[in-house]
Amino acid sequence: MKLMQFFSSSFLLLCFALISVNGDLITDTCNKISDPKVDVKFCIEKLEADPSSRGAKDLRELLGSSIKLIKPRITEVSSVITKLTSDPKFNKPALEVCTELFNDAANGADEAYNSSVKADYDSVLTYLSALDTDADTCKQGFEDLGVPYPQPLVDPTNYFYGITNIALSIADMLK
Q1: Which of 11, 29, 73, 105 lies most in the core, judged by the most C-beta atoms within 10 Å?
Q2: Distance (Å) of CA 42 to CA 109, 147, 163
Q3: Residues with Cβ < 8 Å from 133, sequence gap 6 or more?
Q4: Model confidence at 49: pLDDT above 90
Q5: What is the Cα–Cα distance from 66 to 52, expressed in whole angstroms?
Q6: pTM reported for the whole predicted model
Q7: Pectinesterase inhibitor domain: which residues (predicted)?
Q8: Is pLDDT above 90 for 122?
Q9: What is the separation of C-alpha 122 from the centre of its chain, rounded to a whole number of angstroms?
Q10: 84, 148 in Cβ contact below 8 A?
Q11: Residues 78-83: contacts with CB within 8 Å, 24+ apart?
Q12: Which helix (H) or strand (E) holds 91?
């Protein structure tokens, strides 16, 4: 009986230690990010909320997990763009350009992930930087036409930038 209690206690301690180590990986990584565009609290909150990130054993796995978080953000932005396209108060040509750019971004996110699996961090950085550029170009299209960036796109685009910049920062640490 005492032997069983010993193994049970040892198992629980090991589980807590593993959880603690993974939590420390996320916190330590987010605290090491020097990019002023990355909010440490946002970084920790979003990565700890993701089971894949929480289960990451090292920075390489955390990078893969953070890249996977980008795709749903792209889908969210694209969905808002699609809804706005049917609303006459928004500039349809600019929104159509944004649709193309975020379609490209979806492919770029896939390429970034594939490159991370191969530990090709230069390519990861290139693809992730292109994602930021796609979003910037979308915004610039509205400015060039002298119309405001649609308010319904602001929050989803900022979320997209936040997650993308976390992944960029992690990839930079691995380079």
Answers
A1: 105
A2: 20, 30, 9
A3: none
A4: yes
A5: 9
A6: 0.86
A7: 21-170
A8: yes
A9: 17
A10: no
A11: 78/102, 78/103, 78/106, 80/152, 80/153, 80/156, 81/153, 83/152
A12: none
